[in-house]
Design a protein that fits this description.
The protein is an alpha/beta fold. The chain folds into two domains: 200 residues, Rossmann fold; 141 residues, Glycogen Phosphorylase B (Rossmann fold, 3-Layer(aba) Sandwich), CATH 3.40.50.2000. The protein contains eleven helices and twelve strands. The strands form two sheets. It has a seven-stranded parallel sheet with strand order 3-2-1-4-5-6-7. It is globular. The model has no long low-confidence stretch (mean pLDDT 92).
Length: 366
């Protein structure tokens, strides 16, 4: 490469909820600051979210995995039934990328948890915070999944983990397994938000929904029903980018948004006293960046979120309540009595810049 040519980056986030797309936002911003041309490969809600954050960015429509949870069975059983389709999607995305690279040139490929999105002739990065995958089926099965995941990571030039290296970290055993099968670079924590001075609270409570269906809708209905007699002021963000209007009943004390772009969402979170949300990893990174009080509601029978919720409570970062035991009065009492700790610093959210700088220097010299 010569110094006059822009580094062209193709980035593809997994469509399993919105967290994979949202945690890519700071990476895209910084790559563009470094004068890289970033092209997105995604579709659906992820595409709506990212093109909303970056108007005019080039988008290559790439089918998602379209993973859904069952409302009754465990995530393990639900995913097991979808495994044939997932393997097909991995092969299809790999072929899609090979076909694209016959027509266009890219200097760097970044895949957020899409195992087939790599190419042997282009420097390829794989992003994951799950070096160990929690199955809910015990240590032996977790270890088996770790080996399978490591095999999928092997074709990539580098694995990036959005967490801190060492004992002070956010994902616990997920990002720091006892037996390390990959050699990752730790990005530090990622957030689309910037730390700003505290603002006056406008809302007593904010509901921030996310995650795959049908559990997103199930939680939405549960919370909206319980908040109808609530006397405080509520902001309800449904987590549905691309949808224009709310279909929920109207109440004077509840303000509903289908989706908010990053700058509006940051202000909304900062303006809220307490947040109710899932224990998705990207959501946790965002809340810690803004130093907010929250009560977590892990997605039922989703082992990763259940692990993270327990780990957050053990580290005194956030308390949690199970969805089937949730009650708004209990959540507020828990939030008001919990000893929220804040062990992370602003520097923990800037490490990724050094990692990107080193990578771009390597690419430009090769």
């Amino acid at each position: 490469m010569n110094g006059q040519k822009k580094t062209r980056v193709l980035l593809a986030p997994l469509d399993w909820g919105l967290g994979h797309a949202t945690r890519c936002i700071p990476l895209i911003r910084y790559l563009r600051e470094k004068d890289c041309e970033v092209v997105l490969a995604c579709s659906g809600a992820s595409a709506s979210l990212l093109t909303g954050e970056f108007p005019g960015i080039e988008l290559k429509p790439l089918d998602g995995y379209n993973i859904r949870y069952s409302s009754g069975s465990s995530m393990f059983s639900s995913i097991l039934l979808q495994l044939p389709n997932i393997f097909i999607k991995i092969k299809k995305e790999h072929q899609w990328l090979k076909d694209l690279l016959k027509k266009e040139e890219f200097d760097l490929i970044i895949s957020d948890n899409r195992p087939g999105f790599y190419h042997k002739n282009v420097y390829s990065i794989y992003i994951t915070h799950q070096l160990l995958i929690y199955s809910g089926k015990g240590t032996w099965f977790n270890r088996l999944l770790q080996k399978i995941h490591a095999r999928y990571m092997k074709p990539f030039n580098k694995v990036w983990v959005p967490d801190l290296e060492g004992t002070k970290n956010l994902a616990g055993e997920l990002s720091h397994p006892l037996q390390q099968l990959a050699q990752p670079a730790y990005l530090g924590l990622l957030s689309r938000f910037e730390l700003t001075p505290p603002v006056e609270h406008v809302y007593d409570l904010m509901v921030l929904l996310s995650g795959p269906e049908p559990q997103r809708t199930i939680l939405e209905q549960t919370l909206y029903h319980q908040l109808q007699p609530f006397t405080g002021k509520v902001l309800f963000v449904r987590g549905l980018p691309g949808q224009e209007a709310s279909t929920l009943p109207f109440f004077d004390h509840i303000t509903v948004h289908t989706h908010l772009p990053a700058h509006q969402l940051q202000h909304a979170i900062a303006s809220s006293a307490i947040i109710l949300c899932r224990s998705g990893y990207t959501t946790l990174m965002d809340l810690i960046r803004l130093k907010k009080k929250a009560v977590l509601i892990p997605t039922p029978k989703q082992p990763e979120q259940e692990y993270l919720a327990r780990f957050m409570q053990q580290q005194q970062l956030f308390p949690f309540l199970e969805q089937d035991q949730f009650h708004i009065t209990t959540a507020l009492q828990l939030a008001n009595s919990f000893p929220y700790q804040q062990p992370f610093t602003e520097a923990d959210y800037t490490i990724y810049r050094r990692v990107i700088d080193e990578l771009l220097e390597h690419i430009q010299q090769s």
